[in-house]
């Protein structure tokens, strides 16, 4: 059933575009807000508006919000190249390949970790939303490396708590452009959705607290290999923070990377790999740690950039 809302435009939205105002008021993406405007279901002082029109404080807003789409369900089919690093009755630790999302989302039609596990005969916990059962943390679709999925309900609840309480060691290697100064440091900057509404994220005042620690492993002429540890786990966190300090991950064109360098190194996605994951086993009470080697594309790019020395 459609959801009809009527309210005055708050003072804080004075001068905002209609689509931006809807996004902020109702938690929509900018693209979904624009779709609602396009249907004619948005009235300001009784008149239809365009998405680029500006709103004024105190104007009367009437919106008919369509029902949210049903969440996509995982498709159980094996995922080529998705290796199993460890498995017991409580957890399964995978080596996630490129082009695989953690779980189904609206608009994603590619393979998923959950679908791959189910398709290969593995069980996962039933806790969590239907489309992300067993998922306690995520990697971007084009970020590779170590990821743990809960198989039992107790593992799900304890691992979710461990990630929330930041007792999990999430270690990444990233090849970034240039040379960070200082060579070791911390990026502490809040992250939220990019104002453009195009799916990217950005450092935004009032965003969610986000902390990234980095240490330079080796500096090359055009790039630096970093060891990165996350305190928080925001979407695209490493990519956003490295771009914010003007050292985007090599190949990360969405966040400002040089396409010429990416092409020269044969990198078709961000050079970012989850190399290690350490946590207390949810039922055995011992600390466990898992590691993943670089995929071939990233290893080859590292060879090329290291050979390109003065």
UniProtKB/TrEMBL annotation:
InterPro entries documented for this protein: PsdUridine_synth_cat_dom_sf, PsdUridine_synth_RluA-like_CS, PsdUridine_synth_RluC/D, PsdUridine_synth_RsuA/RluA, RluA_PseudoU_synthase, S4_RNA-bd, S4_RNA-bd_sf
EC numbers on record: 5.4.99.-
Reaction catalysis annotation: a uridine in RNA = a pseudouridine in RNA
Keywords assigned: Isomerase, RNA-binding
The RNA-binding S4 domain, residue ranges: 16-74
CDD domains for the chain: PseudoU_synth_RluA_like, S4
Keyword Isomerase: yes
Superkingdom of the organism of origin: Bacteria
Function: Responsible for synthesis of pseudouridine from uracil.
Similarity annotation: Belongs to the pseudouridine synthase RluA family.
The protein, known as: Pseudouridine synthase
């Amino acid at each position: 059933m459609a959801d009809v809302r009527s309210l005055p435009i708050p003072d804080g939205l004075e001068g905002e575009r209609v689509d931006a105002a809807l996004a902020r008021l109702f938690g929509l993406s900018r693209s979904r807000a624009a779709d609602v405007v396009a249907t004619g279901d948005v009235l300001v002082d009784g008149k239809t508006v365009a998405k680029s029109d500006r709103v004024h404080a105190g104007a009367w807003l009437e919106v008919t919000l369509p029902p949210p789409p049903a969440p996509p369900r995982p498709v159980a089919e094996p995922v080529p190249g998705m290796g199993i690093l460890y498995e017991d009755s409580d957890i399964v630790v995978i080596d996630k390949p490129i082009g695989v999302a953690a779980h189904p989302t609206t608009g994603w039609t590619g393979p998923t970790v959950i679908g791959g596990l189910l398709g290969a005969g593995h069980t996962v916990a039933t806790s969590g939303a239907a489309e992300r059962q067993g998922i306690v943390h995520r990697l971007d679709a084009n970020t590779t490396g170590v990821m743990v999925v809960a198989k039992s309900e107790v593992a799900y609840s304890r691992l979710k708590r461990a990630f929330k309480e930041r007792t999990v060691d999430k270690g990444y290697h990233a090849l970034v452009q240039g040379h960070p100064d200082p060579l070791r440091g911390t990026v502490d900057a809040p992250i939220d959705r990019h104002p453009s509404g195009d799916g990217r994220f950005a450092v935004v005042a009032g965003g969610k607290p986000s902390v990234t620690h980095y240490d330079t492993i080796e500096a090359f002429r055009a790039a630096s290999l970093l060891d990165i540890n996350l305190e928080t786990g925001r979407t695209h966190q490493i990519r956003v923070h490295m771009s914010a300090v003007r050292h985007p991950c090599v190949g990360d064109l969405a966040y400002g990377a040089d396409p010429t360098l990416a092409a020269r190194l044969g990198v078709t996605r961000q050079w970012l790999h989850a190399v290690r994951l350490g946590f207390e086993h949810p039922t055995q009470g011992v600390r466990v740690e898992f590691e993943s080697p670089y995929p071939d594309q990233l290893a080859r790019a590292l060879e090329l950039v290291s050979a390109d020395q003065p």
